[in-house]
Each structure stands twice: as structure tokens, then as C-alpha cells.
């Protein structure tokens, strides 16, 4: 297979200078060693004649290259370009990260996107050089490699956590693709992976693991964690400037900022949930954004002073799309503190026994009267829950953002502001703009920014909104 069309000279310059801006955007494969690396690999830069560049790790692996043990491609941040495009391939990649291909197969993935399996395969081969099945397999292998390297989780558990159907399949796939078995990789890992005390059992029989979530720098840690802390729902989340914790399916997570990454402590009874947890934590913290591209677009505009004051500002996402939509509806025209109180009451009444935010079906069956919600607000929540439960609205990545917003606007009581806010945080649309937001209007007026400047901030209006909100 030929490498995908990438500008060779630009990529080689990035590799030669170990430019972190390109981490996750492409991978460098070396023909003499049959190894592929991140652009920031500290190893000696290979000769240009021995180098090939690939857009995705799966493309490099399909061409017969295996991941570098030194720079560890499994730690690369995601390519932010897919969020900007928001197209079918980008949405499919998000669903693969979320485990959709492992649970439903490629046919189920295509059905979720409302296209044929053949069309999905053709799009992937055009964009990435490999089909969705190869991408899903590489995701599984790289997660397994991280678990084998960073944790003491038994190899059997690693196999199932990474989405493999059996240990035999796991061993065979890793040997075929990487040239070594899981046990051989573990033997070369650091002391943490060899120390059984590094992974401790929980009371529910699960395991508490710590994984590193890498990010692009600069990263506005204080801004992200302050945003989440101010909106933490009582009974579901506990957050401050130094950590964020919440209930997730089958367990709990805690996110703690470190010098160059985010530490994820996850305790789940079923380790098969790990891939989904990792993907959703990355979106929650907006770890894959491109701060330089955003600063280059917004810096020369009327937002310049705000951008300079908050380098690396992020748009906090959502762990669950429906949960975020409920937050947006409850938060209409009331304070953040007031919304937290009402959401805490909803969780106290409607949450599942494991403390999770109520599913659409559970919210439909719950009596929401007497919680301080107006009758109209309750009707909006019920209508929203019904449409999500019946598959008319997909808030976790499968639906085109514009289509999802159009469907949201059909819900009684959801207007442009609410739909745009959901698009901004749940649908990860970097150009979403909360139309009619009073705080944004006041901040723009105070800074003397005319409303026609909003169009100048495309395609990063969501980040423009966060700059304005955080400046108040």
C-alpha cells in the first residue's frame, strides 16, 4: 500500500524539529526498522529516503509497520481536524473510539451513520488508506499496549478490556501485527506494569487502574477544571480546581491534572468499558484540540487580548450527550448554581441504583414534579428523552451536528440557544455559537465588539464563546 497523500517536506521538517503541533496528525514510518513513530519521537531523525508518512496509525500498521516502544504512538492525542470537518469519517472515528465497532461490528457502525457498509469502507479507504475494521483493530491493539505498559492488569483482563473476544485471538493478533506477544511486551515494560500492587482490586471485584491521557500544549488546566467544578451535579460529580470525579457505568473515574498529562484513575467492574471511558474523558477535557490553530484564527481579531491572556483555552465537552442536553434544558434562563441544585434533585430522584445520570428511558418513567421545575420545563425534558430514546436524536457522535441541531429545535421548549449549547459541548462542534446568550452579549458590549465580528471567528466560534464567558 502506498502512503497517503501528505506533504512530504512539511512532515519531514516537523519530524526533524520534533514539532509537537503535529503530534497525532500523522505518523512516521521507517522502512529500515519497520517501526512507526510520533513526530515527536526522541530517536535520531531517519534519512528522508527511508521515511514514509501516514495519516493514521492503522494505515502504518496495515503497511507492515509496528509502533515504537520509545515514543509510544498509543499516547498520541487525536487529530483535531476531524472535529472541524464533522463529516462522516470524523463521526465514524468518534464512534469507533467509543467502542461502537467492537460492540456492533462495522455493519452496526454504518447503520448508526445511516449509510451502507460498502460506502463507509470506501470513505475510509479514500481518507485513511484502510477500512474501519483495520482502524478498530489498531485502536484495540494500542489500548492493549498502553494497559500492558502502564498497569499490572493481568493479560487475560487486558485482552477483554481492549475489546478482543478471547486471549488466543489477542495473542495471535499482537504477534502477527507487532511481532511480539503480550507477555513479551509486559516483560520489557517498566516496574509499574510488573508490580501487582499497581492494580488493586475494588470492593465490587473490579480493578482500579491509572492511565495517562496526553494532551496538546498549551492546555488551560485551571480554566477547564474550574468550568467543570462550577457545574458539578451533587450526587453525580465531585470537582474542584485539582480534580474531577464522577460515576460512570459500572464504576467511577477521577481525573487529575499532571505536568504534561491528565491522570485517569478508573475503577470499573467490567474492564470492557475502558475504551469508552478513555474516549469520553478525552472529549470531556477537550484534550485533542489544536490550540495553535485556534489562537492563529482568533488572535488577530477583536478577541486578541483574551486569547493572549488564556493560552490553550478549551471547550469542556460532555461524558454523556443526553446528560448534557438535560443540563442545557434545566439551565435555561437561570443561574449556574440554580441549575446545579435542580439537576441534583433530578439525579436524587431518577438516578439508577449505581448513581448514574438517568437514561432517556428512565427519565421518561420518572415523576419530575415537586423538584422546582416548571411544568413546561418538565414537558421539554420528557419530549427530549422520548426523541433520544427512540433514536431520532443521536447526541453521542453518530449524527451530523447540523441535523442533530435541527432535530433538537423540533423539541418543545428548545430554542436556538439551547440547541447551540448542546452542539458546542455534546456534539463537539467547534463553530457552535450560543445565539442570544445574555452573558456573551454583555461581554461583547463591554469590550466594544460589534456583533458582526462573530462571523470573523469561524470556524472556532465555540472557543470564542468560551473566551468571552471566562473573561467575565
| Residues in β-strands, percent | 5-15%
The rough form would be described as globular
> What would CATH call the class of the largest domain?
Mainly Alpha
Strand order of the largest sheet: 5-6-10-9-8-7
CATH fold-level topology of the largest domain = Endonuclease III, domain 1
Task: Give the end-to-end Cα distance, rounded to a whole number of Å.
Answer: 53 Å
Overall radius of gyration: 22 Å
The assigned structural class equals alpha+beta
Work out the number of β strands.
10
Number of helices: 23
Description of the molecule:
With 472 residues, the protein is of the alpha+beta class. It folds into four domains: 8-73, 3-Layer(aba) Sandwich (DNA Methylphosphotriester Repair Domain); 81-150 and 152-196, Homeodomain-like (Arc Repressor Mutant, subunit A), CATH 1.10.10.60; 199-276, DNA-3-methyladenine glycosylase AlkA, N-terminal domain (TATA-Binding Protein, 2-Layer Sandwich); 321-470, Hypothetical protein, domain 2 (Endonuclease III, domain 1). The chain is built from 23 helices and ten strands. The protein has helices at residues 8-16, 57-62, 81-85, 88-97, 100-112, 117-128, 132-150, 155-161, 167-178, 182-188, 191-194, 221-230, 274-284, 291-298, 304-309, 321-330, 336-350, 360-364, 375-389, 401-408, 416-425, 438-446, 461-470, and strands spanning 27-30, 35-37, 51-54, 66-67, 200-201, 207-214, 237-240, 243-248, 251-257, 261-268. The protein is globular and about 65 Å long. Its EC number is 3.2.2.21. Residues 186-206 are annotated as: Disordered.
